[in-house]
């Protein structure tokens, strides 16, 4: 399969080196964001793995109007810029509305289209027209081969800086299912494919603060399956104390466990690359 290499800072997404997208689900207070970034910097330097820092300034798809949705775009981007200035990470965050595109593009290196919104033409095309890298989350309702459709909307602007991210299908009663065939189908687009493993273990319908709102016991198994299937990057939401996180508390990985979690995945990726060659 031919592959487009997408440049994010000094990271060649889609080349043979596995890359990581990591950080808290949503931007909380500045100290948590900086503490997480500091630990991620230490871990990724020891592992020698390139990393992009992720946190959402707004989570507009929470299941209750009472749940924390983030600080908003102005304060959120200020904190993200501070992370970039201090630690040198490239940045990614979600955008939900066309009027968020321009201010977000002034700070972020990647504009992320949430899964629910991947077919929203004005949003997707507006993000593409900035020339920035666009990460399209795979809609839970969309067959993987149809992810070429939102990618083509981006291509219509002349922008081919596209990343596709798998995060599971809605199936049955609030379960998300990861079908390894989706990695194969999305790789056929020629664009780098990322696996958002922590979102794939969320249990819909259960508040994320409830310990039953996520199935962490499957993280390692699913991550290994994705790496063995040939993904280019892993998306792992991390937090210094997941049980106290304001969003996705039951599914985020403790950032202090990330190093040991990643070691076998890097080894497996190297084997997969050698097999491919």
TrEMBL record:
It is found in: Cytoplasm. It is an enzyme of class 2 (transferase). It catalyses: D-arabinose 5-phosphate + phosphoenolpyruvate + H2O = 3-deoxy-alpha-D-manno-2-octulosonate-8-phosphate + phosphate. GO terms for biological process: lipopolysaccharide biosynthetic process. Pathway: Carbohydrate biosynthesis; 3-deoxy-D-manno-octulosonate biosynthesis; 3-deoxy-D-manno-octulosonate from D-ribulose 5-phosphate: step 2/3; Bacterial outer membrane biogenesis; lipopolysaccharide biosynthesis. Its main location: cytoplasm. Its EC number is 2.5.1.55. Keywords: Cytoplasm, Transferase. SUPFAM superfamilies: Aldolase. Residues 10-269 form the DAHP synthetase I/KDSA domain. Pfam families: DAHP_synth_1. One of its GO terms (molecular function) is 3-deoxy-8-phosphooctulonate synthase activity. GO terms for cellular component: cytoplasm. PANTHER family: PHOSPHO-2-DEHYDRO-3-DEOXYHEPTONATE ALDOLASE. Belongs to the KdsA family. This is 3-deoxy-8-phosphooctulonate synthase. It comes from Flammeovirga agarivorans. The gene is kdsA.
